[in-house]
């Protein structure tokens, strides 16, 4: 990476990217991914999508034994307060790029996709913080740079333990947008009027479209509006303050969460979209026991029929 070259976001945030870095990001990540996989430092198993429709809601289930290896910090772990954790001193073998002044892009050690990314803050910030404009800018730049080589991407931010956060250090995940079905926020049609009652969605949700000309500051302003509406819903339902953010280049979605039932595996932002990742056939059957839509309804704030 050229130290003196920069990529300028329309919001005015200067990124430490050169034009060649943007073009070559996918190729570089794949080279690193395959090397780490061959050395057994990174874990990945190819998965096939299983498409299911339940009560009008589309699901894509993927099974991967890699998820059995992934560590999930206990709710009260000291690392959730900044005392240690994998992102404070990251393994350089996993670092793909430094994004601007505040973020690091790494390969995900426990990958559902080839490749899969974690985008975290350089300094510790808690995973219960809202995303700021630098977070949004970094995620948008990474997604845009991956578009040509890896196809459309989505950003997941699991804000809080009950939103599916496995680590306490502020981080986003960058994953491929499912190609086998469309996510429901695509049905939203306004950049100003929130979609909050999309048909067949069993839980509270808040969606805005993002115009192609929007800069990161404008996108962040839309996100703030969505989070404010999320918090109103949480106060009314007397739940906690965890939520998911899912962002693509064309829409933003915020989902208020509540604590899952004891023994349940908490769905992350992708799961709440219907892109559910499970460890094994037994966990897959658990989703059918209650019904996939009911599982999501229990982990979000149910929409009354």
TrEMBL record:
Gene3D superfamilies: 3.30.428.70. SUPFAM superfamilies: HIT-like. It comes from the Eukaryota. GO terms for molecular function: ATP binding; ATP:ADP adenylyltransferase activity. GO terms for biological process: nucleotide metabolic process. Residues 42-179 form the Ap4A phosphorylase 1/2 N-terminal domain. Residues 199-302 form the ATP adenylyltransferase C-terminal domain. Coiled coil: none annotated. This is 5',5'''-P-1,P-4-tetraphosphate phosphorylase. It comes from Purpureocillium lilacinum. The lineage of its organism: Eukaryota, Fungi, Dikarya, Ascomycota, Pezizomycotina.
């Amino acid at each position: 990476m050229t130290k003196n070259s920069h990529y300028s976001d329309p919001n005015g945030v200067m990124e430490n990217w050169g034009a060649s870095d943007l073009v070559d990001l996918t190729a570089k990540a794949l080279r690193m991914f395959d090397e780490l996989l061959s050395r057994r430092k990174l874990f990945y198993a190819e998965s096939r999508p299983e498409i299911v429709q339940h009560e009008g809601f589309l699901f894509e289930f993927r099974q991967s034994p890699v998820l059995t290896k992934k560590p999930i910090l206990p709710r009260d772990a000291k690392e959730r307060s900044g005392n240690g954790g994998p992102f404070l001193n990251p393994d350089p073998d996993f670092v793909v790029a430094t994004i601007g002044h505040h973020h690091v892009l790494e390969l995900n050690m426990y990958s559902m996709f080839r490749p899969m990314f974690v985008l975290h803050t350089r300094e510790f910030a808690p995973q219960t913080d809202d995303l700021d404009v630098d977070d949004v800018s970094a995620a948008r730049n990474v997604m845009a740079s991956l578009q040509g080589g890896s196809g459309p991407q989505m950003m997941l931010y699991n804000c809080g333990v009950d939103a599916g956060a496995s680590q306490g250090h502020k981080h986003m995940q960058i994953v491929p947008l499912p190609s086998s079905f469309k996510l429901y926020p695509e049905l939203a049609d306004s950049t100003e009027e929130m979609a909050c009652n999309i048909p067949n969605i069993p839980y509270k949700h808040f969606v805005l479209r993002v115009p192609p000309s929007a800069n990161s500051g404008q996108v962040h302003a839309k996100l703030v509006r969505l989070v404010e509406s999320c918090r109103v819903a949480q106060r009314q339902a007397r739940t906690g303050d965890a939520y998911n953010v899912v962002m693509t280049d064309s829409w933003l979605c915020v989902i208020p969460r509540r604590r899952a039932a004891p023994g349940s595996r908490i769905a992350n932002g992708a799961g709440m979209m219907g892109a559910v990742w499970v460890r094994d056939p037994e966990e897959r059957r658990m989703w059918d026991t209650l019904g996939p839509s009911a599982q999501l309804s229990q982990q979000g704030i149910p929409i009354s029929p």
